[in-house]
Amino acid sequence: MQWNAKLTKALKATGFQQSTADPSLFTKTSENSFTAMLIYVDDILVIGTDSAQISELKSFLDKSFKIKDLGHLNYFLGIEAFRIADGINICQRKYTMEILKENGFLEAKPAKTPAISGQKLNSLEGTLIDNPEVYKKMIGKLLYLTNTRPEISHAVQQLSQFVDKPTNIHLTAAHRVLRYLKGSPGKGLFYPTNTQIRLQGFSDFDWANCTETRKSVTSYCIYFGDALISWRTKKQPTVSRSSSEAEYRALASTVCEIQWLHYLLTDLNVIFDRPTSLFCDNQSAIAIGENHFFHERTKHIEIDCHVVKEKVQEGLIRLLPIPSS
After folding, report:
1. Where are the beta strands (DSSP E) in the chain?
2. Which of 54, 63, 158, 185 has the highest local Cβ count within 10 Å?
């Protein structure tokens, strides 16, 4: 905490502004340049439009704190970055290989999908495993891997519900994820250099997915131009009385993420001139989000979910239907 406070004070003294959306982000704007810093403890990532200003910043940090300059971005917090003329690709291949080696899956037969289609895990089936710490450690590492592997997010979310008392069935399902990773350890995300300055989101849900609590699962993904920048799969905190309500709750979560991204991108000097398109395959949920008089079907929904209506009226988002297919 003392290190962070000292660094923050030093950066603010040189003209940097701390982001309110993300306290680990610092930005500095001058007439002809823009510089941004992302900080995680003592790891620092610097980007900018003026190489001279970046060099000046590094000299200041070295003089004040004695830093080690690692050059151009290629490895940061376990994430590998590869730059080409068309953009930047990020992945966690080294981290993935370490997970596979640690669990003895380097020579395993690859699986085509991270989970068996239609499989619903619960805490009642199977026998408790002898060493649950192995399962907990594995799931913890897989959760961090979802930073660049959105396609395993749903499977890992399901597995993370049973870290307190994992059974042999949960362990087998976790091994399925490892076998899937064995087939594509270097898969990641690509961010193109030239892309449209626009946000668009896709929101969905799995109604009453949990067989024990009957709670639904929220899922969303948000794109900046053609690049995926945010995604999530999470069980909803309450039981929904209808599929429309579950979808509306999923919309509310997505809208909050879109609002946060707007704040964050504004700090990065990215300005949007039109509402964010938010796609949903439930017409009733769209009607709830746009219609104040849908009272009978919405009066039991918590007030915080109605952020959707508020942001539609403010022009932040525009709700659009999309086929389930």
Report:
1. 17-18, 25-29, 34-40, 43-48, 75-76, 79-84, 87-91, 188-192, 199-206, 217-224, 227-235, 276-280, 317-321
2. 158
> How far apart are alpha carbons 249 and 267 in whole angstroms?
28
pTM of the model: 0.86
| CATH class name, domain 2-69 | alpha beta
Cα 241 from Cα 253, distance rounded (Å): 18
Predicted confidence (pLDDT) at residue 300 exceeds the cutoff of 60:
no
Architecture of domain 196-321: 2-Layer Sandwich (3.30)
Structure tokens at 118: 């239609």
Cβ neighbours of residue 51 under 8 Å, at least 6 residues apart?
none
Sketch the domain layout of the chain as residue ranges: 2-69, 91-183, 196-321
Q: Which residue has the higher pLDDT, 323 or 288?
A: 323
Residue 292 clears pLDDT 60, i.e. is over it? no
pLDDT at 155: 94
Read off the pLDDT of each residue in 207-218 and give the average, rounded to a whole number.
Answer: 73
Residue 319's beta-bridge partner residues?
Answer: 278
Distance CA 213, CA 193 (A): 45
Q: Which range has the worst mean pLDDT, 60-69, 226-235, 284-293?
A: 284-293
